[in-house]
């Protein structure tokens, strides 16, 4: 695959990953708990980074935003910050990578400079993917720890679909960013001009050969006298 289609595919892959990260961030199903309050009424409770919701068997869903930031658990606040950082970095990476594509006309006209710009965009995509990966994995680890803790007295939740979307988005962003980094090629150093190359083994051999020939000629001349 040539360089231009490779860069375009890498950018599309990374942008698809960041789209999944955005969907995961705004989703309300980071953790889900299915509980039966009674035989007649069945409810499901699910929660995201910004609000918690309650759904009934009749199809009605009621959501409520978290009242205070300071009332949230520490890991939820940290996951919020990491997801927002991931989205901001992903936006900057998309803009930078567009300037670094070989097929684009705007930006620098030097191919090596464009490669460096694409490399920078790829590195930012990787950092954005890692930020999302840390947030989603931290959230999932906390849910798993609470679920298997016999002393935990609250509602025990399970992993929601938003976590899987976040994992997929982070991996796609890291993969696309890695491909963008691989598209960068180092500039070959040109050979130095004006350097005189002296082939020293040949000169002594020639002088020695000429001296030997003169000596043999003189010896032959004296033999005939």
Brief summary:
With 225 residues, the protein is an alpha+beta fold. 59% of the residues lie in helices and 10% in strands. It has a domain of 138 residues: Butyryl-CoA Dehydrogenase, subunit A, domain 3.
Descriptive tags:
PMP22/EMP/MP20/Claudin; alpha+beta; Butyryl-CoA Dehydrogenase, subunit A, domain 3; membrane; structural molecule activity; 10% strand; 225 residues; 5 helices
Question: What multimeric state do the chains show?
Answer: single chain
Secondary-structure element order, as H and E? Answer: HEEEEHHEHH
- Identify low-pLDDT runs: none
Main beta sheet: strand number and arrangement?
5 strands, antiparallel
Percent helix among the residues? Answer: 55-70%
Radius of gyration: 34 Å
Shape by Cα distribution? elongated
Can you tell me the CATH topology of the domain at 3-29 and 72-182?
Butyryl-CoA Dehydrogenase, subunit A, domain 3
**CATH-scheme architecture of the domain at 3-29 and 72-182:** Up-down Bundle
Mean pLDDT: 80
- The first-to-last residue Cα distance is 82 Å
Give a count of the beta strands, DSSP E runs of length 2 or more.
Answer: 5
Estimated share of beta-strand residues:
5-15%
Can you list the strand order of the major beta sheet?
4-3-2-1-5
Number of distinct helices:
5
The helix/strand class is alpha+beta
The CATH C-level name of the domain at 3-29 and 72-182 is Mainly Alpha
Membrane topology: Multi-pass membrane protein
Transmembrane segments: 81-101, 122-141, 161-184
Subcellular location: Cell junction, Tight junction; Cell membrane
Function: Claudins function as major constituents of the tight junction complexes that regulate the permeability of epithelia.
């Amino acid at each position: 695959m040539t360089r231009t289609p490779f860069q375009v595919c890498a950018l599309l892959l990374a942008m698809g990953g960041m789209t999944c990260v955005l969907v995961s961030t705004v989703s309300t199903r980071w953790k889900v708990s299915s509980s039966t309050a009674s035989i007649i009424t069945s409810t499901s409770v699910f929660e995201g980074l910004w609000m918690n919701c309650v759904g009934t068997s009749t199809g009605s869903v009621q959501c409520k935003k978290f009242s205070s930031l300071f009332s949230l658990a520490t890991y939820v606040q940290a996951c919020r910050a990491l997801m927002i950082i991931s989205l901001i970095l992903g936006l900057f990476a998309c803009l930078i990578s567009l300037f670094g594509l070989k097929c684009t006309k705007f930006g620098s006209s030097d191919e090596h400079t464009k490669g460096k710009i694409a490399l920078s965009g790829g590195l930012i995509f990787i950092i954005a993917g890692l930020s999302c990966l840390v947030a989603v994995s931290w959230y999932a680890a906390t849910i798993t720890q609470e679920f298997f803790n016999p002393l935990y007295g609250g509602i025990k939740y399970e992993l929601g679909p938003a976590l899987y979307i976040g994992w997929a988005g982070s991996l796609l962003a890291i993969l696309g960013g890695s491909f963008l980094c691989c598209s960068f090629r180092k500039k070959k150093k040109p050979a130095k001009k004006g350097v005189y190359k002296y082939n020293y083994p040949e000169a002594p051999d020639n002088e020695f050969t000429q001296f030997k020939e003169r000596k043999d000629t003189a010896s032959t001349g004296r033999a005939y006298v």
